[in-house]
Fold these 2 entries.
Entry 1:
Amino acid sequence: MNADVTETQHGPLLPVQRRGGHEEPPRAARLTAVERYKEILATAAEAHDRMRGHDAERTRELIGRLIESQERMARVLQEEKVVRLGVELHWEKVTEALWEERWMRGKPRPAPDTAVPRRPLHEHVSAMDAAYQTLEDSLQKRTLLRRKP
Amino acid sequence: MSRRDDRRRRIEDSYEEFRSAVAAVLGAVTREHRELAEERARDMFEVVLRGEGVDRALDDPLLANALRNPLFGDRVLTALRDREQAFAEWSRSGAKRVADLVDEVAPGSASRPPEEWLGTPGTADGSEGVPELWRIGTGLVDSAPTLQPFPVAVPLLDQAHLHVSSTYDSRAQAESLVEGLLLRVLSHFQPGLVHVHVWDVNQLTGSLPGLYPLTRAGLLTVHDPARLHELLDELSDHIRRVHTSVLVEGHTSVRAVSEQTRRSEPWRVAVLFGNRQALKEEHQQQLQRVARNGLAAGVQLFLVDLPITVNSPVETVVLRPDGTATCTMTGRTTTVRLDEPLPRTEVPRACAAIAEKREERRSRFGTFADLLPARAHVWTDSSAAGVAAPVGFADGEPVHVHLGDTSPHALVGGPSGSGKTNFLYTMLGSLAARYSPDELELYLLDFKEGVSFAQFAPGRKDPTWLPHARLVGVNINTDREFGVALLRFLSEEMRRRADAAKRHEVTKLEELREEDPGGRWPRIVAVIDEFQYLFGERDHVTAQATQLLEDVARRGRSQGIHLVLSSQDVAGIEGFWGKSAIFEQFTLRIALPKARRVLAEPANDAAVELPRWHAVINHESGVRPGNLIARVPDATKRGTFDALQRTLWEMGPDDPPSLFDGSRVPGLEKQEDFQSLRPGDPSPAVLLGQVIDVAGSAARVRLARTPGRNVAVLGSEAADAAAVLGSAARSLSRQHEPGAARFDVVCLADDALPYATALRAELAECGHTADLVRGEGVRALLDAEAARLRGYGASAAEGPPPTPHYLVLYAVDAAQGLLEHKDATTRVSGVDSLRTVLKHGPENRTHVLGWWRGVQRLKNSLPPGVYDDIGAWIAFDVQGKELLSFGPEQVMAWSPRPRRGLFFDRFEHSRPQVVIPFDTGEDVP
């Protein structure tokens, strides 16, 4: 009888009954106190890990947003610059034009009105242009301000 | 309105309009910018918040302002909500579940606050379970939304070692932790169940000073820092002893053995304080071995700042310089705050109280009643794996003896007066109380004079018996045959069990009991007191006894047959010591004070100095490490063993033991074999005496119708001869219908006359023809009978069978002179007639039962050199060698013994037997 049984990939050649061993005893249903204690504490550890994990995920998400919003910010800044420049030009011209109207009391530049209804910027710019044109037209008595057609 | 005014108004209006538009456009860009910036700020804040974790962030001073900023409020709330969600289960019930668990498994001092238990010695003995966890402090899960403290506790004793790691600053805390745990453990159990050892690499005294009062009760041992090996050796020895004596029969740990019962083996807690450096290599290795094997033996380690790798369960507490700690029970997420150290002054007081209690218990001697189980536990133990029972006390704790596969047989030694009998009573009582008669049978032989074992059989004064006793032999003295008979009986029982085991395909009694739960397979313990008498002579009996003893000693263990041999003088048994095969089997050695050769001398001389009432119990064949010295209680005084026996007798079946009492004369009337005699057998049997065997059967001779069936009694005492002749004749009387047999009772000696007369009268009363013949009448009788028999010779085959005719001849040799006379006419002497009767009688149903008062006298009655007409004889006070003509060479060993005869039946026996003549019930002076 060959006592030197080698295990093949399908398991040992001898069936369990002849191997001289015993079956695996069923897993104890009852845990020891130590095991129960550690099991409960494990829920706290799991919660902690869950929290940190969620934080990490959220952080990744936020960083993605920040990258994207960085680009948006660059655009916004650029737009602002252009708008302010345009405003400046208009304002200078208006101030100059009103200088002749000695009866007029000039007013300071208006503060930005951040409560305006939300509209695409170009609408506000157009409105400003239109208002500028209207003002120009109203000053049209003299030919000082002659708009080119 | 003038045109100028009109124009001015238009200009003003349009200027306002323009100004609004400018404000609007500026507002729009500003707003967009700001909003985006805010969004980004929030996101950036949340990255920081989440990166640290909201729990840590809340405490971070750098973030304090940001956290208060309402802009970030939402994000903070979300993070907090996320945390709550993650911890939902823990917050809901985690801390409570931990607290409930600790309450459940750590009752009493294991987890309650010190004010509830410190100072009061404990009472638990392990029978109600051992706390699985012991409190060390409070834990908090720092990152949890609500701070819910819960108790932190560690396993100790049978379950795991404890490793404490501290820093220079937190060392004092480590000591407080250890002290606190030790006090919890010490205060939980009965004093004496926990022993503490302390070793500190740096100092001899000074570690755990509060525990010092325990030293006086032997509960604390402080070890010299330079002598770590002593501590390790002590622990290793203890572990080894536990493994060989307690962890037998397949138990793997003391906890398993003591499950549900009183803890049998105290715990030993060894506290070792190190200095974060590894020990010397050999100490390290030994310590690792102790760590590996200790828990199963109840040895547990507290290692403080001592690096070690163990593959036994161990929990670690790491103390941080800031006073907090982490623990492997709670993991990395919990910060443990150890409990406050116990109040400085109360610790020594509590230890003193424990020490006192312990002293009290130690000095309590322990009575016989203390050894016995509670009423509810009488007869509840199973002997499947062996038998064990306490026989005494050491330090107030019971000391057990075990008989089983690993310690099959016991040798008990001690000179007379040393308490041997008392010890045997204690042991037998303790066993008999725990195991029922179906679990344990006792066979008890007492060779010396006296009444040691008579207690176990019913007697005149005390009708009770020990239900487990199946056979009790007392006053055996010279009846060594009885010892042989018992050994033979055990040997046969062993065979019977071995056969049964084979049938069930098992090898041991334990397995047989499993395979055959319906069968009755008790363990048998045979106790032979003063067994050396069995081997006293150099004769056939000794040879037989030795051989049987070897057989039973070697093979009895697996069949559940155990021998307990006790002796005053073990040294004197040559046959015993020479046979190491026997000797080796007696692994349990019990030495009473001054016993010699029972323990492995000269190294083990514990018996020499032993005080009275003590015994050395050693399960390891007498080597010193196996010694346990127990104080044996008094089991012989009134109210001890006798009271126990009465209680057990009342519980047991109505089946008394067979009693062999060498000093008693067996009565013929009561003999079973006699009572079962009935008429009808063509070859009636005569009962001559009682054989010395376990069954107490009768020695019998069949009086068949063949030559030689005559019985001779040889001896000078009338009483002896009369007993044999009387028994024989009465046996015959029972086996014939009235009138169907004829008896001639011949009496030729005056001292036999009363017996002869009584016999004749009794035979007549039974309806048989019975004549008493005296003096000269014997000649006529013999001549007549001889003539009749000669006449038969020819016609023996025809006609009806002759009437049985029995000649009972008392002192027939007295008539020798008379019989030698030759008849004038026939030239035939009386002796010739006698010889004819002896020769031809039996085949014609005439049998002679004769008493000759000497061997030579018998020879004179027989033809020279031709003795085979006497088929069976019993010899009393004759010398063995005189009998050589009548029997095999074994007769040589015979010499006169009071009330004993040597019996030999040529037709049945290969060697003679010793028999005890019956008391035939005659009232003669």
Entry 2:
Amino acid sequence: MAVQVVFRNRFLPYLLVAPQAAVTLVFFFWPAAQGMRQSLLREDAFGLSTEFVGLDNYVEALTDPRYLDTFLRSVAMSALVAFLSMSTALLLAAMADRAVRGGRAYRTLLIWPYAVAPALAGVLWFLMFNPTIGVVGVGLNRMGIAWNPYLDGAQAFVLVTVAASWKQVSYNFVFFLAGLQAIPAALIEAAAIDGASPFRRFWTIVFPLLAPTSFFLLVVNVVYAFFETFAVIHATTQGGPGGATETLVYKVFNDGFIGLDLGGSAAQSAVLMAIVAALTVAQFRLLDRKAGA
Amino acid sequence: MATLSLQALTKRYDNGVPAVNAVSLDAADGEFIVIVGPSGCGKSTLLRLVAGLETVSGGRVVIDGAVVNDREPGNRDIAMVFQNYALYPHMTVAGNMAYGLRNRRVPKPEIAAKVRRAAEILELTELLERRPAQLSGGQRQRVAMGRAIVREPKVFLFDEPLSNLDAKLRVSMRVEIKRLQRRLRTTAVYVTHDQVEAMTLADRLVVMNRGVAEQIGPPLALYERPATVFVAGFIGSPAMNLLPAEWDGRFARVSPHLALALPGLGAPPGPLTLGIRPEHLGLEGGAAAAVELVEPLGADTLVHVRLADGPLLVARAAAAPAPDAPLALEMPLARLHLFDAAGNRIPWEAPSAALEARPCRPVA
């Protein structure tokens, strides 16, 4: 039950909410509204003339085959990042949960990568996998594998995905570990007495009990992969080679700030905003239903 | 249907302190063994050793003639009821009960039949599709029992299964557990810190203290002839009165004003402990004492009395004495328990002649 507070002064509650409301208004609603307005306008490259074009920008963006490609690529990257980072994190968390000696140090070390900025994470991985100076990149080439993410789109895509996932593992790890530790030991013991093998215990007891955590992380990771991979991409491939690592967010930036098609870029932003809103609504709906059960 | 035998079972933790120290016990087929003791006495550890949730440091656990020390908990053919029930929250009541059978690849129709039968026994039939969160404490307790009986194990293990229930429910569940065990005739080991539960449920009682089994025997035998001071003080409520005394060969001196003649006691002079149960203390004739506190319980009354200059004792009386009235405390010698300095019972039968004499008298 939420605590009900009664204020004597009827303006005080509004005053207390005001700073948060102001921040949201200035930094979210205002730019969002401007973006929406922009998405209905077309401007020349020099910003000298502006004309109202209705939904033309949307039609143009959504019918562009390249936009569809980018959309599918983003979905693929999100799915891969979510799957890679979550499965790795779950594996590590399951092991950390069992670690008896040095468990604390192990956990601390695993959380560190989260402190690395996404751009740096990207640069780090590209440096390691650089075909001429990177430890791994050079090694791969010596082994006879033609490795060059600067030329090969698929390789660049893999590298961006791995770098983005690596950074996210820490975050997921913390949540999974907390989720695992919230499962009473007696449940696992009861399952052991009920004759379940460790593997079966994990899949029939632990994993279902982690479902709320997993779903929350899924949404967070998809949103992360959609938006925050921008820094990784910008610092490494800039969407290249040949658009192989261009995601929706990166295309918004590219079209708007490099291509100077502000209207089109704004329309794509509006689409992205709709996607995030849908994801968030879905998450709240599902979490509410869980809480209500 | 099986016997359970513990042979010098020992559990030592990394710091070397034995949590369970050489406990030996033979439970007959269908016997209800209750392990009782204060918290930290090792009783839960002992149960977990039997279950296989802790590794054995020494000795053997034998179920139905087979040493199971190195068997996984799932392969020991035991079932355990946990203190907090440990029901699987994401499964229905039926799912909880079926889980152990499914893991053992029992055919589905057979599982359904067994679950239905267990549910009937425990009156859970209407609740089979519910989840644990939708059940009351007593219902969860019954589901935990159902999960144990549905597998028809060789041994039931109970780890303080009633301690999370309110007092009224605890009494009715206690009766239900006893009835169920009688009906199924399954060997059971039951751990509790509640000595009333222990007394009422047990065929045989194991009193544990600091990892050692102080005494093993039928509840009334332990009540009537406690082997150690610890058992004497632990079994019975209110607890037995224990008076430190100095034995000089003729008298056991409790206080400067009180000494008891113990004819025929051959123990060497030295400190000893006199024990007498509250219901055996008489309030007429004997040593002078003063009433300190009266606790009426309805059926009888607990009277806290203090001997002149001496220790506080509790007597169980039919009626409350007048407050502040001088009182004479009587200790029938035949009811006296004697323990030596190490806390072990001194075998002693009061000679019949002594019983007729004033059993307890002040000396100058």
